Amino acid sequence: MRKYKITESKHPKYPWLHRIQALTDVNDKVPKGTMGGFVEKESNLSQEGACWIYDDAICCENGEIKEEAALYDGSLVRGSAVVTGDITFYDRAVAKSDCYICGGEIKEDAVISGKAFIDTVGINAPIIGGESHVYGEVRGNIYIKGDVFPWDIFDNHMKDMFLYEKGKWSAFAIPEKLKPPESYRKRQIKKKNQPER
Q1: What is the SS3 assignment for 188?
Q2: What pLDDT score was predicted for residue 182?
Q3: What's the pLDDT tens digit per position in 22-38?
Q4: Which residues pair with 27 in a beta bridge?
Q5: Cα–Cα 20 to 30 A to 37, which of 65, 77, 129, 177?
């Protein structure tokens, strides 16, 4: 079953692009009838999953939006870029060329290009913002505010966040609370349930 249709509503600047409209409830934010962003052809946005193009965002040429991916604001996916998983694009962020992005958040004026690869590690997803240009690999809990070249591989499997800003690294430790072991909690419950003497 198709989840959206391409309408006759043309983009004011790029008339070969047309707005989409939901034919069914796509996700919590997109009930049936909702107008979305712009595509060039049906292969730009998957008819499956909860993926959506919001606001005035665009996916064109051979770009693909799949699974849970979301484009907002004036973001753009073009070339042969694949945007999938639970990735979110905001502001004026761009994915182009042959990049593959399957997790995280791309925002502000960031550009993902070339054969760049962006991915989540466990529940830790990268954030790429500012005026970053990313051509290499970024995985895990990393905040990029700078250029990542094709030979760069940034991979963080830890909970602590690493910030890469204009060629310099910083680390931000995530505070963790001590949790009582299960045996302690069971003893506490048992004490509460014992009758007073």
Answers
A1: helix
A2: 87
A3: 999 999 999 999 999 99
A4: 30
A5: 129
